[in-house]
Amino acid sequence: MNKTEVISQLTPIFQIVFNNPEIQISENLTANDVKGWNSLTHMILMSNIEESFKIKFSLREINKMQNVGDLISLIESKK
Amino acid sequence: MNIEIRKASEKEVPFLVRTIIDAEKSGTSILPYEKIFGLSEDETENILNSILKQNEEDCELSMDAFLVAFHDNKPIGAVSAWIEALNDVSSSVIKGNLLRQHLSMKNLINASKYWQNLQEVHFDIPVKSIQIGLVYVAEEARGNRLAEKLIKQQLEVLQKKINQKEEKVFVQVYHNNLSAIKAYNRIGFEIIETKENLDKNLLGVLPDTKKVLMQLINIKNE
Amino acid sequence: MTFTSVLFLPYLVVFLILFYLLKQNTLRWLLLLGASIAFYLNIHLGFTLILFLVSIITYLTSIGIKNSKNEKSRVNTFRIGIFLTILPLLVSKYLLTLFKLLNDYFYFTEQSDNPLSWIILPVGISFYTFMALGYIIDVYNEEIEAEPNYGKLLLFLSFFPLVLSGPIERGKNLLIQFSNLPKFDFHFINQGIKLMIWGYFMKLVVADRLGLYIDLVYSNPNNYSGSSIALAAILYPFQVYADLGGYSLITIGVGQLLGIKIIPNFNRPFFASTMAEFWRRWHMSLINWFNKYLYTPLSYEFRKLGIYGILISLMITFIVSGIWHGANLTFIVWGILQGLFLSIEATMLYLKQKKGTELNSNYFKLPAIFGMALTFFLFAISQVFARAESVPNAIFLFKKIFSNLGMPYISSISLLVGLLALFMLLSYDFMLEFNKKRILLYLNKYKPLKYFILSLIIYSILTIGNTGSEGKFIYFNF
After folding, report:
1. Does domain B4-216 have CATH number 2.60.40.1120?
2. What was the ipTM of the complex prediction?
């Protein structure tokens, strides 16, 4: 799976979880840029990404993520 | 044959749902809703039922978009059509929002892997043009040019709604559905664009990986 | 010795002069270490030994994790290390209560001659133990390198500005600074003194004056009307804010004098318009600790449960945070209330987001002031449980508020002085929150006025403040 494919699959997940069809994914995107992305919704987002991509994250991996770029490369490395 | 055509009401919703599912299957046994969202056919019916009853305007899943033909008070045909982005929101966004409201997160996430591919076979229709969602005629009523009648009457209704006669009219059809393409052709539609996505991801998800966009060039009045 | 002892400031000045006379970084952090140990030794020899013990366990665990040959020994070192690090805290804080509870059922001894009654809580242990745990977990998660120098790790845990009541610092932030202590800068002194003055004002003038009234009412609620109890209940959150917030500002100010940046503990909490926002502004170092090391792992474990997983994690986190405050049922009720408030908010937010309505941090679409009032009100209710002696006692207080309101007792000079000072504190916070232009008196650009106000504040601290005694901070009990 390459970066573009990951982004195109991630985009609807973000749109669904944060219920905002206008969210566009970029590598520099952080939780501060997305309304509603907080510690409560974060794990809901992560578990939905796991389900969509059929992968599993460890807690350590989730903790180390700084922005969506990190998330994308993590998914790439697992696919 | 004594046929009456009028706007759909809540009583006809189950019938409309059947027409939508029939059109989506496009002559195959593949129901895209089923595959994309991971729903059963019954669940799909239930969800379409409640979406139609909500009657959001101007998209393929609004009750208002339907005209129904009756014979002896029994629905035998239907057409759906709407004006694209009449209130500045495109019909695909309205449809997306409706699905978001009525589907569970799990179903939506299931769809996330097809989103990009589906976008690639999606046609963007010019704002304020008319789009036909589906035309359905029951088996026993076929051969009466009922489809044509329904479309013409629906166009009149919509043209009245925006006070314009010369409007562009479009319809999207799966490429495999030759009988539909032929039927639209007879009324005056012609293929103006095709889109295809050969990604293996979409195999078995849509009735055909190729879609055609048809436009009404000139209404034939025979 | 504490920040409010007579000798603290003279000692601090001597220490600062020595600190800045030394040029070599090694000598400087050794001086810091010496001063920190002396500061804590001055409180209690036994406590200091426990601190040494915890620091040695922490050091050995972190080095052990780093040098582990395989994953299995890494995990085992980590688990054993965590257990041993937290053990002194568990023993000193909970063993006595546990024994009493069990004794109620099994009657090992007479309640009066409890064989464990010699156990006392070493002041600061809840704070430095949490710093140690966070450090070990960070090393285990490879977020920081294990500190090879035991002395620096001991300094991290015993650093005198923090050791008694936090802020609960992170190795990530503090250890690096010890390795690179900055040169003298007048700016540090200027900033540090300002922070300390404001901290002393919050503690000695606002908190202590309000505290006199609140203690009076809480210690003998039978003698006071329902409205007096209600007033004390409303004032208590302000007292805690001024007490721990003042302490934290002094800590941060002392750090600033040394050129060391310490994380903030409060961010004008009473301007939060939701409970969730409140907890991002109140006792931040503790809540960040719980968020990182308890809530996040829990919500990870329960992530398949969606919103329910979030609610379970919130509830557990706040109950544990309640227990952290003390081995008393009152704190468990306090934690359950916080968990409940936050769960309700989270559910409302979740449903709203699902419905697709515009997300708004203010759930009720009311002006922010209503949200602030409601948030404060809910917090004040929960704080009654934190302050009351027991749960029945807290319920008695509520009953009295509703059954026998009466006239409030307000003819107390302390209360009036406290309220006036509180008004100053809140108006200062208000300006910072809503008007960044700093037109307020104490930060006025016009220097004579600024210095006049500053001296007024110092004067009020010296005359009104209960200076010189071994002042008690509320959080010394936790």
Report:
1. no
2. 0.85
